C-alpha cells in the first residue's frame, strides 16, 4: 500500500497519546522508507535488465549488422578487383601479343595497335552477343519471321567469324601460354600475369599469359575458347601440352585421373562441349556439320590406334594427298562419327582406357607416349537465297610425352628405345627453331612432326601450353621447359592462316 503525506498526517493526528503518536510516526516513517527501498529495488531491477539483457542484445545486433555490411562490401570490392584484374590481364596479354612490354609504351600511353586490338575484341564480343540474342529470338519465333531472322543470324555469324579470325590472326599463329602446377611444396617460381621468374636468379620468361598454381581449369579454357571457335569456321587448330612428367599436361588437357567434374575437366571435354553447343546454335541459322573423331598414341615412334585396344599390332602410315600438302591421313585408323558431346566424350574415354592399361603403369607409360585426339569437321549451309557454302577443319589436341629427357645425354644413351621416344620431341624443337629462323623445317624426321606438319606451319593455328612444376627438385627441367617455351613463342610464321575451302 502507498501512503501519501496527507494520509500520513491525518493518521498521526488521530492518535492522542504522544508516545503512541511518536511510535506511529516512527512506524509511518519506516513504512515510507520501506516504500522508497521497494521503488529503488524495482528501478535497480530495471537497470540490471537493461545492462545485462537489452544492451548485450543490441551490441550483438550491431555486430551482426556490421559483419553483414562488411561481407557485402568485401564481396563488392572483390568483384571490382576481379574485373580490374581481367582488364589488366587483357591489356598485358595484348601488349605481349604485340611484342611490347608495358615499359615500352611511353608514359603508359596505349599505342594505336593496342587500341585497334582492344576495339577488335570489343567489336567481336558485341557481335557475338547480338548473334546469340538473335538465335534466342529465332528459337521462339513463328515460321513467318524465320527466313528473315535466319538471314540476319547468318549475316551476323559471318561478321563474327571474320572478326574472330582477324583477332586470332592478330594474336599470331603460334601462341604460347604457361601453366604452373598446383603444389604445396617449396615454390621456386614467382609469377605475374605474363611472366615467370626463377627465384634467386635473374631468369625471367615472358609469355602471352601465365597461369599461376592457383589457376582453375575454367580460367585456362577462357583464354582459348575463342580460338576453338575458329575450328568451326574452317581452320586447322592444334593445341598441345608440353612439359616434364608429372607437370600437369594430362590434367590440363583432360582433367584429374578420377572424379572429373564440371570444375575440374580439362581442355578436351570443354572444347567438345563448346563445339557441339556452337553447332546447335548455328543449326538454327541453317549450318549442318559432320564430325569424325580418332584417337591415337605415338609410342616409341610407332602409331597405335587407341580405339582398337593395346594388343592390336597393326601398321599405320601417315599419308598426304598432294605430296606433303593437304590434310594428313593415317592408314587403318578408326574414325568415328560423333553427333554430340556425349558421343565424342564416350569415344574419347573408351579409347583412353587403352592408354592407361600399359603394364608399366600410367605415369611411366604416358610420359613415354604422345596422345593425339583428332576431330575432323565438314560443314555446309544453304542461305535463304539458296546459295551454298561449305567449310572443313581439323582440331588436334595433343598430350605430349614428358620432356625431361630431351637433352644431349638422351641422344647418347645406350637405351635405343628411350632415344626413339625422345627423338620426336627433339625434332619438334628443331622444327620450331627452323620456323623461327624462317628456314624450311624438316618434318619427316619424326612421326610427330610429320603428322603435325599442317598444324605447325602454314595454314594452321597452334597453341602450346608449357606446363611446369614449381618445386626445387624440378628446377632444372622447369628451366629447360621455360626456355623451350620462350623459343617457341618467338616463332613468327610469314604465312597467315587460311581458311579451308
Ligand atoms: N593444376 C593442378 N591442380 C591439381 N592437380 C594437378 C594439377 N596439375 C597436375 N595435377 C595432378 O598432378 C598429378 C600429375 O599430373 P599429370 O598426370 O597431369 O602430369 P603429366 O605431365 O601428364 O605427366 P605424364 O607426362 O607422366 O603423363 C596428377 O595426379 C594430377 O591430377
Number of strands: 14
Q: Which sequence of SSEs, written as H and E, runs from N to C? A: HHHHEEEEEHHEHHEEEEEHHEEHHHHEH
Q: Any guess at the CATH architecture of the largest domain?
A: 3-Layer(aba) Sandwich
Strand content: 15-25%
According to CATH, the homologous superfamily of the largest domain is Kinesin motor domain
Sheet bearing the most strands, described?
A: 9 strands, mixed
Residue share in helix = 40-55%
Q: Return the structural class.
A: alpha/beta
Tally of distinct domains: 3
| Ligand names | adenosine-5'-triphosphate
Tell me the distance between the termini.
108 Å
Radius of gyration over C-alpha positions, nearest whole angstrom: 37 Å
Mean pLDDT: 78
Shape: elongated
With helices defined by DSSP (H or I, 4 residues minimum), what is the helix count? 15
Uncertain spans, ≥5 residues at pLDDT below 50? 98-110, 356-366, 406-414
Which labels suit this protein?
9-stranded mixed beta sheet, 14 strands, 501 residues, 3 domains, 3-stranded antiparallel beta sheet, alpha/beta, Kinesin, single chain, binds adenosine-5'-triphosphate
